[in-house]
Design brief:
Largest sheet: none
Shape: rod-shaped
Number of strands: 0
Order of helices and strands: HH
Number of helices: 2
Helix content: over 70%
Distance between the termini: 93 Å
Length: about 80
């Protein structure tokens, strides 16, 4: 379109329609890619959250086991 305008030629309705179709096709392609990227980003965020949550839960379990072990050890020492 730019080249036609620069040459001073008039743009016909067929040219406009062809340009619109071309732009619509490009838009659809970009839109699909954007949706795919947003979905992958959401997956990555969920995975990151789950990883941090798992680490926290494992630390809590470890602390709880250590406390239980220490309580048992103290009871044995008292007896």
């Amino acid at each position: 379109m730019q080249s036609l305008l620069q040459n001073g030629e008039k743009i016909t309705p067929k040219q406009w329609k062809a340009e619109i179709q071309s732009l619509q096709s490009e838009y659809d392609s970009i839109s699909r890619e954007q949706t795919k990227t947003a979905t992958e980003l959401a997956y990555a965020e969920v995975i990151g959250y789950n990883k941090k949550n798992l680490e926290r839960e494992l630390q809590n379990e470890s602390r709880q086991q250590n406390r239980q072990h220490n309580r048992t050890k103290r009871r044995e020492e008292e007896i």
